[in-house]
Specification:
This protein is of the alpha+beta class and 75 residues long. It contains five helices and two strands, in the order ααβααβα. Helix 1 runs parallel beside helix 4.
Length: 75
Amino acid sequence: RECLALVWAIEKYHVFLYGTSFVVQTDHQPLQYLLRAKHLNSRVLRWSLALQEYSFRVEHIRGSENVGADYMSRL
């Protein structure tokens, strides 16, 4: 689900993100390795191919340090 959310968000903001470098900050650590793995199922492979046209890196933030998302979830 985290990978699908990433694909959805990046495609939604394609106008702003295409051609620029950006950082994706997440508390879902497997997302870092999921996008670099070689043996993926077909769904994740399609997502990975869709994301290849963007220049970004995934940065892991511990859940306790991710105060922005914590605050937003309490609204």
